[in-house]
Every structure is written in C-alpha cells, then in structure tokens.
Design goal:
The complex is a heterotrimer. Chain A has a domain of 77 residues: SH3 type barrels, CATH 2.30.30. Chain A is built from two helices and six strands. Chain A has a six-stranded mixed sheet with strand order 4-3-2-1-6-5, with no helix packed on it. In chain A, a hairpin with a 3-residue loop joins strand 5 and strand 6. The mean pLDDT of chain A is 83. Chain B is α+β, with helices and mostly antiparallel strands. In chain B, the strands form two sheets. Chain B has a four-stranded mixed sheet with strand order 3-2-8-7, with no helix packed on it. A three-stranded antiparallel sheet of chain B has the order 4-5-6. In chain B, strand 2 and strand 3 form a beta hairpin. The longest helix of chain B is centred in the last third of the chain and has 9 residues. The radius of gyration of chain B is 19 Å and the shape is elongated. In chain C, helix 3 runs parallel beside helix 9 and helix 4 crosses helix 10. The model of chain C has no long low-confidence stretch (mean pLDDT 91). Chain C has one domain: Amino acid/polyamine transporter I. Classes of the chains: A mainly beta, B alpha+beta, C mainly alpha.
C-alpha cells in the first residue's frame, strides 16, 4: 500500500459517523533490526476533524513562536487525535475504525531526536 | 471526545508528513539523491477487513519519481513504475534522511546518471572539479 | 589584517551586488515621476531584505538546508509545487530582464544593437556559471558593481536643492500630476525591487555553497547589516539623480539611456565611463544570481544534487536546468520585447510572490529541529510578523492596482 493513497481519506467510526480525515501516519522504529535502521512499523493514524493539510505539525509540538501563527494553526487542527493500528478495521477508499476505539492525544512524545 | 494520553513507547516515533515525506535524502557521501515523495507500506490490502491481531505493516521503501504527480493530483502509478529506495538502505532520519549506500547503486539516481552521461559529460569541462 | 580585509570585501561585495536592473529602472522611473516622495519605501524594503536574508542565512548555517528544500518540506508537495511554479516563472522573468539589461548596457557602451549582444551575454553568463569558482564570481561582480557609486557622486556634482529633496523624502506626498493609485503601485514595485525573492534563494544557497556554519554568521550579519543599507543608499541616489534631472524636464524613463543621463550631466564623460562599467557589472552579476537561483529552486524542490562546489558531472540536472533557462531567456528576448518593460513587470510580480517564500523561512527559523538553539529571538519574531503583514498587503494590492493604473502608465 502507498501512503499517499491513505493521507486525506475520510475516517468513520463503526457506526459510519465521519470523524475527520487522515492527516498523518505515525510509525515506531522498533521492528526487526536491519543492517542500518530497524524496521518502522505503523503505530497509528492521526485524524483531523477540520483540516487535512497539517502541513506544519503545530498541533503536535509545543512550539509557540512566531506568535500568533502556531496558535492560529493549532485552532485549525483542534480536535485532532491518534488512533492505534489495533483500532483500525478497514483501510481503503475510506478508513473505518473498530467499535470502542480509543482516541489518543496526538502530542509527539520525545520525537526523532 | 476525551483524549487519552499515549502510553510510553519504546523506540523512536516518526510521523510520515512531519519527518519523512518531502525530506531530502542524501547518500553516504552526503550527495543529494532525491526528495522523498511517498512511502510504500507492506500492507494491508486496501479495502479489505483487517482481522484482529494482524501485525502492523512496516515501511518497505521510500518512493520517488512519478509518484510525486499522483501524490499531488491523485491516482497511483503501477508498481513497476515506482522508483524505490528500500528501507534497509536508510541509515538515519533527522533534518535530512541519510542513506547508508552510495547514490550510484540506487535506481533513484538513474535520471541524474543518464543526463550526466548523455549531456553534461559531453560539454567540455563537465568533469572539472571547481575546487 | 586579513580579517579586516575579509570583512571589507564582504561589505563591499554586498553593496555592489545590491543593485540590479530592477532597482536601476524602478528607482529611475520613480525619481522621474514622483521625485523623492517614495524614498521611504526603499528604507522599508532594505530593512525587510536585511531581516529576510539574515533569517535564511541563519537557517542555512544552522541546518545546512537551503530555502527551497525548506519550502517543500514545510508546505508539502502541493503548495510547494504551486510555490515552485510561481517562483520559477518569476525568476525566469527576472533572468530575462537581467540578460536584457546586460545587452542594453553593452549597447550603450558600444553602439552595437542590443539584440546582437543577447547571445553573447547569455553565453558569458553560462561560462561563468559552468566554470568560475563561486567566491571569485561574487567578489569580482560585486566590486565592479561598486562603480555605481558614481550616481551618488553625480548627484553631489549636480548641486541640487538638498532642502527640497529632503523635504520630498521626509514629508511624502503624491505629486499633482500623479494619482494615489499609481503612487501606491510604484510603492509596491519599489518594494519588490528591493526585496526580490531570488536574493533569498541565492543568499541561502550561497551559504551552503560556501559551507557556512554558525561561526560564519557574524561575518554574514555584518555584510548584510552594513552592506545592504549602503546598497539602499545607492538606490536612493539613482532616484535622486532622476528627480533632479529628469523630473523637472519631464523626461520619461523608457530605456537605460535616460537612467544614466543624469550621470552624464553631473559627472561628464568620466562619470559616463564609470556608470557603464557599473551597469554591465551590476546586471551581469544579477544575471548570474538569477540563473543560479533558477537552478537552485528546481534542484532543491526535487532533491537533485546541486551546487557550484560540485563538478558539473555530479550536478547534471542542476546544470541542465540552468542551460535551458538561459535558452528560454534568449528566445524571449529575441522576439524583440522590450527588456525594460519586462523589468517593470518582474519587480511587481516579485512583490506578489514574496509571501510564498517568506512564510516558510519564518516558520523554519523558529523550528528547534532545524535550528537547535539558534531559533529566532523574540524581537526578530515581532519584526518578522510585522513584515509578514506588510508583505501580504503588498502582495494582495498589487494586481488590483496594476489593473486600475494600467501597470503604472
């Protein structure tokens, strides 16, 4: 599967209610070790109810400068959440989540550094 | 909806749009190879139900080439037209993506090599080192 | 001693390299129609380009990434591609204008028709881009461009009424023969001439070319903060000469010969010789910078290997794209379209495109992943946000004003 196909797709819960669109995909580098970097496995998808183009990622980092841009962009992406791979039922023309999925905070915890 | 804080994760996290896509890829000599235009995952089959307990897909390759056009405008090029940089060639991800191999060994570099051989090397001084 | 020489060289190169065909034509047109009443725009533009160049240089030194890589990475491929198309086309327009400027300057010096000079100019630009070392290219064209100081010299020799000139500059008012719309249209044009996007592409890519690191930033900051304002003074001198000689006589600026007429009047044959050298050097230097910028923008967006510090064989697509750019420029100029007209449009379109380039740099200059601890300080951010508003206002007002004033006529 190609990621570009997935980004921007509508996300529904198990009852068919639209929750938003796929804004990003989060991976964890903890898979089978390779020669250089371990495998990167899909942790989950970041879903944004309002805007697809999360082009600056402010809703996930704590950057506050240059004021007031991050605040404006965070408002545009208010309500974004992370769903884990285990809660995803179908990924195709749209994404459907399993019943009783958990909505996690999309904050980046200790990023790539 | 109420958001639950993410449980601690062992291992680096990478967000595709924030950290991988549209980043410059450099080969092991620091020479730019291409920008990452898309990512190829190992699964799942699009549109099919995912059985519970299926292991998560992994990134198999960085993609470049015509996939940039489809990423912007929609659609998907056939698998044979995709230019891949296998994930096993990736050494580090930071401000740029560092590859552990030389650009010469990568498919992703073929346009550069073609133009070099057909055009640039034919013009006098093309191989002259400016330093 | 060597340090002082290095610093002096940097400053002098920045002054000499500041003026290009856009500044020459726009300042002369403005001086001949509005006197000194738009000088404040040059001041605003100079502060803006200092701010802008500083940030993009710091981004390049701290992260090793040049402007267009940053633009694509921050904006994503769709917005990045739109940005690339706009920036590349406007850059192409500027390349054409600069090569046309070189040809016109050579025509003035030699009485050989400018159309014959065009392929010569383009070939010369290509040879320098192909072979000459980056720092030598910068230093030679920058130092030769310093001869444009003759505009300031000529202004003194013309013995103008300084009080009158100062009055026009410090208490700006729209002259009776002009409308408010054309006043603001030319304000935007002058702003675009001072803050051309290619300056930033070139400056940040040049930082990577010369391998700047954080400790080189002090030198670059001095170059920018001393050199650019002095370059701005040169621009004002060009406007001043036009205001003193062309405005009272009602002479309109339609070609380069009117631009240098005040110098001939004030400083005679010797002044004319200097200004012709300066004209060729400034436009040639700018033609080099814009041609390289077109290569930089394409290569950085698509991730190609680029840079004059690499052998051409190792940056094949970079060099090929510049060859194609020059060929397109020659083709457009060969149709006989007036290079001065292209210049007048290119500065306004540059003003329109400024927000596209400016916003991503501002964002990245605040990103700790790129900058480490060298993110923007608070005062810089405040100034930058003020300029963001100014740039957006100029960009949005440009097209309506262009329509209302018929592109300033």
């Amino acid at each position: 599967m190609i990621l570009g196909d997935l980004l921007g797709r509508a996300v529904h819960d198990s009852d068919g209610v639209k929750l938003g669109r796929v804004a990003d995909a989060r991976f964890v580098v903890d898979g089978a070790p390779q020669q250089l970097m371990a495998e990167a496995r899909l942790l989950g998808l970041v879903v944004s109810p309002h805007s697809v183009s999360s082009f600056l990622g402010y809703e996930r980092t704590g950057v506050t400068q240059p004021w007031p841009l991050p605040r404006m962009l965070r408002w545009r992406h208010r309500g974004s959440f992370l769903v884990m791979w285990e809660d995803i039922a179908v990924m195709g023309e749209s994404v459907r989540l399993r019943e009783g999925f958990t909505a996690y905070s999309p904050e980046l915890v200790g990023g790539p550094e | 909806m109420k958001l639950v804080p993410v449980p601690p994760i062992a291992g680096r996290t990478l967000d595709a749009q924030l950290h991988l896509l549209d980043r410059q890829a450099l080969d092991n000599d620091g020479v730019p190879v291409t920008t990452v235009d898309d990512l190829e995952l190992s699964g799942p089959e699009p549109g099919t139900e995912i059985p519970e307990g299926t292991p998560a897909p992994v990134i198999t390759a960085l993609l470049t080439g015509p996939v940039l056009g489809t990423r912007i405008f929609g659609g998907r090029p056939p698998s044979s037209r995709l230019i891949r940089i296998p994930w096993k060639d990736v050494a580090d991800v930071g401000v740029v993506i560092k590859l552990g191999v030389s650009g010469d060994s990568l498919d992703a570099d073929w346009v550069e090599r073609w133009i070099r051989d057909k055009i640039i090397a034919r013009i006098p001084g093309g191989r002259h080192d400016p330093r | 001693m060597k340090r002082i020489l290095g610093v002096a060289l940097g400053i002098l190169t920045a002054i000499g390299g500041f003026v290009d065909i856009g500044d020459l034509v726009t300042n002369a047109v403005v001086g001949s129609r509005f006197g000194m009443s738009l000088v404040w725009v040059v001041a605003v533009g100079v502060v803006g380009i200092c701010l802008f160049a500083n940030m993009s240089g710091r981004v390049a030194a701290a992260s090793g990434r040049a402007t267009f890589e940053v633009i694509r990475e921050r904006l994503g491929p769709r917005a990045g591609l739109a940005n690339l198309s706009a920036s590349f086309l406007i850059n192409l327009m500027t390349v054409t204008a600069e090569i046309g400027g070189v040809a016109l300057a050579l025509q003035l010096a030699s009485s050989v028709h400018y159309l014959l000079w065009i392929p010569v100019a383009a070939l010369a630009v290509w040879l320098v881009v192909w072979r000459v070392k980056f720092s030598i290219m910068e230093n030679v064209t920058g130092l030769l461009g310093l001869t444009l100081i003759v505009f300031a010299v000529a202004l003194f020799l013309l013995k103008p009424d300084w009080g009158n000139l100062a009055g026009q500059a410090l208490a700006p008012a729209v002259p009776d023969e002009e409308t408010a719309s054309s006043y603001w249209y030319y304000a935007i044009a002058l702003f675009g001439a001072a803050m051309t996007p290619y300056e930033v592409f070139f400056f940040s890519s040049g930082a990577v070319e010369e391998g700047w690191s954080i400790k080189d930033l002090i030198q670059s900051r001095i170059n920018v903060l001393v050199g650019f304002p002095l370059g701005g003074v040169l621009s004002v001198a060009i406007a001043g000469c036009a205001a003193v000689v062309l405005l009272p006589a009602g002479i309109a600026v339609t070609s380069l010969s009117q631009v240098i007429l005040p110098v001939a009047e004030g400083a005679g044959k010797l002044g004319l010789a200097f200004v012709l050298i300066g004209l060729v050097a400034a436009t040639f230097g700018a033609a080099l910078e814009t041609t390289l910028s077109s290569g930089y923008t394409l290569a950085q967006f698509f991730g190609w290997s680029w840079g004059k510090f690499r052998r051409p064989a190792q940056a094949a697509r970079f060099h090929l794209s510049m060859i194609i750019t020059l060929l397109i420029g020659i083709a457009v100029l060969s149709t006989g379209v007036d290079p001065v007209l292209i210049t007048e449009y290119s500065v306004v379109f540059s003003a329109i495109a400024l927000p596209l380039t400016y916003l991503p740099i501002l964002i990245v200059a605040n990103d700790p992943q790129y900058m480490g601890k060298h993110v923007n300080g608070r005062p810089v951010n405040v100034l930058a946000m003020i300029y963001l508003v100014i740039i957006l206002a100029a960009s949005l007002a440009a097209i309506p004003l262009m329509i209302v004033t018929g592109a300033g006529s």
